[in-house]
Amino acid sequence: MAAHCDCGAPAGPLGECADYYNTILAEEQLDPDMYKWHAVVVCVYLLQHPSRGHEKYLDSQYRWLQFYLDQGIDAVQRLRDHQVARNNHRSRAAYDMSPLDPYLPLPAGGPPARFRTGFCDLPYGEGGFILDGHETYGHRMKALAEATLDAWKNLGPGSPSRG
């Protein structure tokens, strides 16, 4: 019987989701075009594997994915760059989460038991995760984000906004 990841997915050729995630993070360091998906990758991974992160951030990660699907990867990059600049040690400003305020809060009762697609479903080959181009990789990241949001939304109504 195949081992299952804590997200419910069976292991893939590279191993469990953590193996895929860590390989993606390593490949991003060598590929700036791939790195633009970093925030999406992190949010998807932690929402599919919340025991690997911090519960207090799940709501904002859920909102980040909604923001991404609503406004696109370029908007995510602009917001991420804005956050990084605000978090600079010379700047005394905190993160500005107001762009995420319009989005639904994380539903209560999670995490979902399964996701229709996860990291172990990603193809990997010569060229790593970019085996058939950055655009196709982007489509796969969008599919992961959609599957993650859908699984959480299917849990039921949103939880009260977390402060």
Automatic annotation (TrEMBL):
Protein's name in the database: Uncharacterized protein
Source organism (scientific name): [Actinomadura] parvosata subsp. kistnae
Which classification does the entry list for the species? Bacteria, Bacillati, Actinomycetota, Actinomycetes, Streptosporangiales
